[in-house]
């Protein structure tokens, strides 16, 4: 797989995650090893990675995710309610909405759940530069997803569980100064491969030398 193919076909996999096929723990470790090569502010590398495979732990985290997702799907910001005045894009959003709901009802059944975290100097988030803070773990999380794709695994970028971050932290026994960045379900996928997704044209989002 070329770098271009990898970057343009790493999708959020929701309906096509194989919930029955086990995932070799060594594959997940390899993906995280790759992710550790990502940049972090001041090279501090304050990331930590929780890999959830215990059925009961996955069930508890999955239930909290499902609860949060149901509230999201009922909100004005749900994917299916966006771009309602654009028929073509609205159809795409409806499919996304449906796949989000599908995954929410099965999150606890996904063979592996990965939660990248940041360990902070104190229990409270610092004021100011949040981009710099989370920029020290989010590139690594994306690298993990790319590495998984290269190894025949599907993943999805999710953060809805953060509505219940404290409850998830209690389930996992996280210290108060460890904050979660995402929840990445990981599994083999059904079907053969993925293709690039439709995106807004570059001309609509590119600005040169100013807005």
TrEMBL record:
<dbReference type="InterPro" id="IPR029479">
    <property type="entry name" value="Nitroreductase"/>
</dbReference>
<keyword id="KW-0560">Oxidoreductase</keyword>
<dbReference type="GO" id="GO:0016491">
    <property type="term" value="F:oxidoreductase activity"/>
</dbReference>
<protein>
    <submittedName>
        <fullName>Nitroreductase</fullName>
    </submittedName>
</protein>
<dbReference type="InterPro" id="IPR000415">
    <property type="entry name" value="Nitroreductase-like"/>
</dbReference>
<comment type="similarity">
    <text>Belongs to the nitroreductase family.</text>
</comment>
<dbReference type="Pfam" id="PF00881">
    <property type="entry name" value="Nitroreductase"/>
</dbReference>
<feature type="domain" description="Nitroreductase">
    <location>
        <begin position="9"/>
        <end position="178"/>
    </location>
</feature>
